[in-house]
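User: Look at the shape:
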Amino acid sequence: MKDALQIRVGCQFSGSASEKSPAVFQLQPFHGDPHEILEESWHIEPDVSRHEYFDSYGNRCQRLTVPRGKFTLRYDALVQTPATADPTDATADELAPADLPDDVLIYTSPSRYCLSDEMAATAKELFGAIPPGYGRVEKINAFVHNHLEYALGTSTSVTTALAAYENGVGVCRDFAHLAVTFCRALDIPARYTFGYLPDIDKISMYPMDFHAWFEAYLGDRWWTFDPRNNDRRRGRIVVGRGCDAVDVAMVTTYGDAALNELTVWSDLA
């Protein structure tokens, strides 16, 4: 890959379970994106069997059963990705619903956290007069960036885009959910995206963590937008995509398992 970056990504979970608990982990870079996985490894203590499958969105998932007692799971990968920042195209147009590809239509509907039907009037009031196209999505992205204050611990696993909008505060997933909601309310297909975002240019004041952003379908492809940062970034590595955070949970457990500590890394190799 010409003009590429090599980035070390991964995470470590430490937790405990009062009983054996089936679980699904979604931590691996998405197959088919511009990045290329050069190497990857798993380490689980105590050792348990696992297997990979692809969900209905094409996300890579690992199924395993967390053992009773304390456990540690570590995933690590070396990924090569383009060195350029997120691409843009000011000429990309919005498509009428009748002209959208079949597999894109799902991203125009309300979902668990993105209540686009309930926020339709607000979206039209704020953005209805803006000419359709890439520029309108940029305006949505900038509005969400300015409207929400980023603050850790200000939302929960049940906070919707509507609640974040009314509260005026949230974390990156709330920023993404609200922007997705506004887009869908205007019939612009938008999907929630989750992954690793290295701080190559030393922009963030926060420690590394997983990050959420969104993609909008304009012209004939998906484009990346990041309302939390409101800028183009380098080294973005997608883990999963879906209608909202429900579809790309990094861990789903079926039992009494608790996370005690999480460490995430995403750095130039």
User: Anything to note?
Assistant: The first strand starts at residue 4 and ends at 17. The helical segments are 120-127, 134-147, 161-167, 172-185. The chain has a mean pLDDT of 94. The first helix runs from residue 120 to 127.
